[in-house]
Amino acid sequence: MKIAVLGTGYVGLSTGVCLSEVGHHVICIDIDDQKINRLRQGISPIYEPGLEDLLTKNTAAGNLQFTTSHQEGIENAEVIIIAVGTPQRNDGAADLSYLLQAAKDVSAHLKPDSIVVIKSTVPVGTNDYVKSIITNHTKKPFKMVSNPEFLRQGSAIKDTMKADRIIIGSEDKEAALKIQEMYRPLNVPILMTNVRSAEMIKYASNAFLATKISFINEIANLCEAVGANIIDVANGMGKDKRIGEAFLQAGIGYGGSCFPKDVKALLHTAGLHGVDFSLLRETIAINDEQQKLLFTKACSRLKQLKDKKIAMLGLSFKPETDDMREAPSIKIAHLLHEAEAKVVAYDPVAKDNAKKILGDTIEYASSVDQAIENADAVFIVTEWNEFKQLDLTEVTKHMKQPIIFDGRNCFEENKIRACSKIEYYPVGKPAI
Ligand code: UGA
Description:
Elements: E1 2-6, H1 10-21, E2 25-29, H2 33-40, H3 51-61, E3 64-67, H4 70-74, E4 79-82, H5 97-109, E5 114-118, H6 126-137, E6 142-146, H7 156-161, E7 166-169, H8 173-183, E8 190-193, H9 195-226, H10 230-238, H11 259-272, H12 278-290, H13 293-302, E9 309-313, H14 328-338, E10 342-346, H15 351-358, E11 363-364, H16 368-372, E12 377-380, H17 385-388, H18 392-397, E13 403-406, H19 413-417, E14 423-425
Parallel strand pairs: 1-2, 1-4, 2-3, 4-5, 5-6, 7-8, 9-10, 9-12, 10-11, 12-13, 13-14
């Protein structure tokens, strides 16, 4: 199948690369010519395990191409997948300006009877709106399909190739069957719905997962108060198949480009329709508080943070990505900066992106050793494998005070206890 993908962000690029891998002819379009040039050379603009290998392989095989020309990309495509960003507006709603521009670009070069697929995360009703825009800009016949994406950063390729489900929302049976055909080589469950249900499935899924995280974080805080252990509690809860084991890891709150924005956008949509979705307001409020957890604990333990050296291990919103969007590290760094602490941070890959947001409010180390040297406390902010494997005796030896605030529960209890000097504060478990 000849497929054009508009937008080479996480979703567009991963989708394009994976569809080329299963034998389709894919052309990815982006207005950023530097990005397109690098992609042509097999260089990925994002850190994503496995992506560059497939990029290089399929570009060389000739079934994956990149262009800045909408005409070149769209005019021969049977299927056009729109995967541009829908960032958050100040009022919490999704900003649809990139999407609307994409709709105009598509209508200018559309081949008759092609299928326009919206993969971007869009509020309910947006597919119909985009359809009306394209209809206003072209007389050529076309069909629309809503096909939201569920991949996670850091495991984008695996999540695309082995998706739990693919949602195909359309009022046009023929178009839906063609998109089903496009995904058939992936051999994963496919669910057909109407357009608005498909749009809603995406937001409902992200909002539910975010709420699950806020719920387990509140349970963790309660565990600390009553002397229970969140690891055992989450394990015991997760064994119930109705609850499920995933997304019960307590920590310092969710971040990233999706959960914070999508929960707010769903809340906004609910408001527009007169529905008071107060649960989502609480999900957001709990998350905002949880991101302050390490700071609050450090204040109560160290009393005065002024001129204390704090080593922040991890900056990205989660491991295996260099993405800093809405990362808890941002709020933590701001709070420490206001408290006049000296912050030295280390992250295996997110340093450059962090600098764009945090500038010189913190220092950036090029190794764990450099960050922890003479530190009054360590904050573990992102659960990178490199940190989980640290020798705690070695770490504490180089610190001024052997105090660790672990926001991601990175270590087994026996490993912590084997380190005689450590003072260790996890999330939702007794301190050691
Ligand atoms: C999320 C969803 O998981 C994807 O299904 C969805 O496609 C994507 O958003 C999107 O809408 O594009 P992502 O933001 O890449 O994916 O990352 P997740 O792995 O879901 O993690 C999000 C945040 O939740 C991270 O900050 C992570 O640390 C936190 N989290 C996750 C927890 O605090 N506890 C958990 O148990 C799981």
